[in-house]
Design a protein that fits this description.
The protein is an alpha+beta fold. Among the domains are: about 285-420, Flavocytochrome C3, Chain A, domain 1, CATH 3.90.700.10; about 495-620, Methane Monooxygenase Hydroxylase, Chain G, domain 1 (Up-down Bundle), CATH 1.20.58.100. Helices cover about 35% and strands about 15% of the residues. It has 17 helices and 21 strands. It has helices at about 35-40, 50, 65-75, 115-125, 130-150, 180-200, 265-270, 335-340, 350-360, 380-385, 385-405, 460-480, 495-510, 520-535, 540-560, 570-595, 620-625, and strands spanning about 15-20, 55-60, 80, 100, 165, 175, 205, 210-215, 220-230, 235-240, 240-245, 275-280, 285-290, 310-315, 335, 375, 415-425, 425, 440, 625-630, 640-645. It has a five-stranded mixed β-sheet with strand order 1-21-20-12-18. Strands 7-3-2-11-19 form a five-stranded parallel β-sheet. It has a five-stranded antiparallel β-sheet with strand order 13-17-16-14-15. β8 and β9 form a beta hairpin. α3 runs parallel beside α6, α4 (about 115-125) crosses α5 (about 130-150) and α5 (about 130-150) packs across α12. The radius of gyration is 24 Å and the shape is globular. The chain binds flavin-adenine dinucleotide.
């Protein structure tokens, strides 16, 4: 094992240790377009009569988890699902607004499976795996058919065909939508399919239960330790396989567009039990969010990217221009995205649009309080199509903006600024979506699989549903077919009992700290460090500082945290404390990952690695790999396993959207 430390005495402690390379051994040797068919044919099957004897735990009831539960339940497996919300249908997926991509090419505008595949690889700045992304593009069309069959009310054109619109980073219209509530409508479809299985007795849902640990027995994932959030009781659930569909970890930044409860606990606990965590520093900053309005804000609101179809983004040409937007004449406005990127204009990918907004604000041309905003102006389209037509497409987004800001977007342009939104990193999975812990599968935003260093808009819903409806049911069946049901396992097994005791001990330890500071004050401070130093722009010096600050704050957390109440009751401060404790550990790994990746790619922008025009400059010679991190124990440097990325169907190029 080699280390990356430089000098012995005065050098900082080593950041990480080098591990052996990791490879995906599950994608079959076949031409790219035939890999998935080949895998499906080669995968083992479980006969219908045997399925009712096989059990699966699914943690998460968002689009990924609900679609998986519905499909596995329909197939006849015994599924037990968990979520921490009071209802499965309140999973964070419900917040998704703008749409879902699919290579249907209804518009005959040049779309195809290959183009969706290509756009996704390029959009991700050549840091995702070809085989997974190609399969995603192949499966995309079937998702729309499935949703339509469930009655999801996608927008339609006059002729009856489903309507589409464009999202960033593409030049075709492949995004299907249901006004600005696509996630909600898709989730209702998946949820009702899941509820059908609840009625049929194949799926059991435990709402208000939080997974606190993974149970690993004889090297295989065999269950979870959960806490009943109402009674505080610690419970053990065992099964033949475990699926994590627990969403992303953007809330490590405290302020993000994610639901307040979104957290990393399930995947982080699995990481500590042996699952590698891939590319943790790849986070997405979304360009069109309502700007921060005060120190005590705890949540940011997204204005859907779909608004960039018709909205024009601009700032005044002159720094310090404080006139009302309507008083600034056309020739004194800088439509900077249209100027810098004429081919894609306002629809450049999110990482590019976010950095451009930061740049104009840094130059003193930002608008609104603190100069941290740019205008998203729909004046042209309102004039061209009329208010009714615009309201039809974006009405709920206009209402939402007005309610939050108190400003009328029909009268003056919206103000937007980038905010943390999505995490491309997550648990490492192979082509079968199986982690490095056998029997532990990871789907949806919780895995790292398809989006490389930058996710294209409307591709998360596509991935979550592709994983849950179409991929997992095949690959999980293969796993079960290869691992026949073992003799009964129960809570008395030493590994199971130890996991339950450790979970209880951790809660007790949190309660016993007995300090003065609230969980939220620690979380806010942690988020501030991460946003400033591991956010939209990262430097070696800033990341080193962040590492030190995160470690110091974590120590303070474990000595000065104050939680009132008990573990044997509803205790939201205790719930949040457990999540924040895990965010601290994750934050450290994110900084190490960002520090070791001395290149810019997608959402990971290292100031030391940029082109003359200030664009992200990759270093394919040194960094064309997935960084998969192994947990080496408390206080020990993590171990880096590299998965080399090989491109056969696309050529790695410097991205250009000009
Ligand atoms: C405001 C907003 C708008 C978006 N709009 C779009 C869009 O238009 N198009 C698009 O493609 N993407 C969009 N996205 C991204 C997309 O919504 C998410 O990536 C996607 O919904 C994630 O789905 P998921 O099923 O993986 O996880 P989630 O929907 O986040 O579900 C996670 C589930 O896991 C459960 N869970 C988590 N941890 C635990 C635990 N420890 N114990 C028990 N249960 C647990 C939760 O209860 C929940 O049920 C948007 C995101 C945001 C924030």
């Amino acid at each position: 094992m080699t280390t990356h430390a430089s000098a012995p005495s005065s050098a900082p402690p080593r950041l990480f240790a080098e591990g052996s390379p990791i490879v995906d051994s599950k994608a079959p040797e076949a031409p790219l377009a035939e890999k998935w068919d080949t895998r499906r044919f080669e995968a083992g099957l479980v006969s219908p009569a045997n399925r009712r004897r096989r059990s699966v735990i699914i943690v998460g009831t968002g689009l990924a988890g609900a679609s998986a539960a519905a499909t596995l339940g329909e197939a006849g497996y015994r599924v037990t699902s968990f979520c921490y919300q009071d209802s499965a249908r309140r999973a964070h997926s419900i917040a998704a607004q703008g749409g879902i991509n699919a290579a249907k090419d209804y518009r005959n505008d040049g779309d195809s499976i290959h183009r969706l595949f290509y756009d996704t690889i390029k959009g991700g700045d050549y840091r995702s795996r070809e085989s997974n992304v190609y399969r995603l593009a192949q499966v995309s069309a079937a998702i729309i058919d499935q949703a339509v069959a469930q009655g999801v009310p996608f927008a339609r054109e006059y002729g009856g065909l489903l309507d589409t619109r464009s999202f960033g980073g593409v030049q075709v219209s492949r995004t299907f939508y249901a006004r600005g509530q696509t996630g909600q409508q898709l989730l209702l479809g998946a949820y009702q399919a899941q509820q059908r299985q609840v009625a049929a007795g194949t799926v059991t849902i435990h709402a208000r239960h939080e997974m606190l640990d993974l149970v690993v027995v004889n090297g295989r994932a065999r269950g979870v330790i959960v806490r009943d959030l109402v009674t505080g009781e610690i419970e053990t659930q065992l099964a033949d396989a475990v699926v994590l569909a627990t969403g992303g970890y953007s809330n490590v930044f405290y302020l993000s567009t994610n639901a307040m409860g979104s957290n990393v606990t399930a995947t982080w606990r699995a990481h500590r039990k042996g699952a590698l965590f891939a590319n943790p520093c790849f986070t997405q900053i979304h360009p069109t969010c309502i700007p921060v309005s005060g120190d005590y804000q705890s949540k940011l609101t997204l204005m859907s990217e779909s608004l960039r179809n018709d909205g024009r983004i601009w700032v005044p040409k002159d720094a310090g221009d404080e006139r009302e937007p309507g008083a600034i004449p056309e020739e004194e406005r800088d439509y900077y995205l249209e100027r810098q990127y004429p081919a894609f204009g306002n629809l450049v990918p999110r990482d590019v649009a976010s950095r451009a907004a930061k740049e104009v604000c840094d130059a003193g041309r930002g608008v609104g309080p603190g100069g941290r905003g740019v205008y998203l102006d729909l004046g042209d389209v309102i004039e061209r199509l009329g208010r009714a037509a615009v309201a039809e497409k974006y009405g709920n987004l206009f209402d939402m903006y007005q309610r939050i800001t108190g400003e009328d977007p029909w009268q003056r342009p919206m103000r937007i600024y980038p905010a943390v939104h999505y995490t491309m990193g997550g648990l490492w999975v192979d082509y079968d979506l199986e982690s490095t812990v056998p029997g532990l599968f990871v789907i949806g935003e919780a895995n790292f699989s398809d989006h490389g260093a930058n996710r294209l808009g409307a591709s998360a819903l596509m991935q979550g549903l592709a994983d849950g409806y179409f991929v997992l049911p095949i690959t999980l069946a293969h796993y079960l077919s290869e691992h026949p049901a073992e003799a009964d396992l129960d809570g008395s097994h030493p590994d199971v009992a130890a996991a339950a005791e450790a979970a209880q001990l951790r809660l007790d330890t949190l309660l016993e700290v007995g300090g003065q500071r609230s969980v939220d004050s620690f979380h806010r401070q942690l988020g501030g460090i991460m946003w400033e130093k591991c956010g939209m722009e990262r430097s070696a010096a800033g990341l080193q500082e962040a590492l030190g600050e995160v470690r110091a704050l974590r120590e303070e957390f474990w000595s000065d945290l104050r939680i009132t109440g008990r573990a044997e009751e509803l205790n939201q401060a205790l719930e949040r404390a457990g999540r924040v404790a895990d965010f601290f550990e994750l934050a450290e790994l994110m900084c190490i990952d960002a520090l070791h990746r001395e290149e810019s790619c997608g959402g990971h922008f290292r100031v030391e690695s940029q082109t003359e025009d200030g664009e992200a400059l990759r270093d394919d010679e040194r960094f064309a790999y997935v960084a998969a991190w192994e947990y080496a124990g408390a206080g020990r440097p993590p171990v880096l396993h590299r998965e080399e990325l090989r491109y056969e169907a696309v050529e790695m190029k410097q991205r250009s959207y000009t």
